From TrEMBL:
It catalyses: (6S)-5-formyl-5,6,7,8-tetrahydrofolate + ATP = (6R)-5,10-methenyltetrahydrofolate + ADP + phosphate. The keyword Cell inner membrane does not apply. It comes from Candidatus Enterococcus willemsii. Keywords: ATP-binding, Magnesium, Metal-binding, Nucleotide-binding. InterPro entries: FTHF_cligase, FTHF_cligase-like_sf, NagB/RpiA_transferase-like. The keyword Metal-binding applies. Its cofactor is Mg(2+). This is 5-formyltetrahydrofolate cyclo-ligase. Its EC number is 6.3.3.2. Belongs to the 5-formyltetrahydrofolate cyclo-ligase family.
């Protein structure tokens, strides 16, 4: 199946899940329990996380907990050339909505890639090997090309799909936390 078709199916699946608020919140709670108990979270002094849209995994609890635990929390802004830059935020940071519907921080506190310990990578579809299909802009693909910190994604089981082949330039996410029914699968590749 082609990535564009999978992307559209994935968005439809996420929107349908978002209609069932109770089920979505239960799944998020399960995944967050796994994530917050992980060494990746515990060891990270700084995290990079996008502010989610309504139908994506809700990242607000991650931002709030990161700030409460004294972590440096960074949120991306999109730049020309499909590039991302991360900026430090706090509970007082203002945000503005982009034409894509994503909230970006009104902040000048730029944080380099080298300063981010853990990057939470969003996506629409994920393979069991950690590859992802995003929204199609290539922003995270470009950012990940030379990112050397830890990566993970918080993924609803409905987003898991192995019926596609990643491109040669795709980089897998190091760890996936999911509510997968058979043992709450997490993924850790051998690289």
């Amino acid at each position: 199946m082609e990535k564009d078709e999978l992307r559209q199916q994935g968005i439809a699946i996420l929107k349908k899940l978002a209609e069932n608020t109770k089920k979505k919140k239960q799944k998020e709670a399960t995944i967050l329990t796994l994530f917050f108990a992980s060494q990746l979270w515990k060891n990270a002094k700084s995290i990079g996380v996008v502010r989610s849209t309504e139908f994506e995994f809700d990242t607000q609890p991650i931002i709030a907990r990161g700030l409460a635990e004294g972590k440096i929390v960074t949120v991306p802004k999109s730049l020309p050339g499909h590039q991302l830059a991360f900026y430090e935020v706090d509970e007082y940071t203002a945000y503005r909505k982009t034409t894509f519907g994503v909230e970006e921080p009104v902040s000048n506190l730029f944080v380099t890639k080298e300063e981010i310990d853990l990057l939470l990578v969003p996506g629409i579809v994920f393979s069991s090997q950690g590859y992802r299909i995003g929204f199609g802009g290539g922003f995270y693909d470009r950012y990940l090309a030379d990112f050397e910190g830890n990566t993970c994604s918080l993924v609803f089981s409905e987003q898991l799909n192995d019926d596609w082949e990643p491109f040669t330039f795709d980089r897998p996410i190091a760890r996936i936390y999911t509510d997968y029914a058979k043992g709450r699968k997490t993924h850790e590749p051998n690289y």
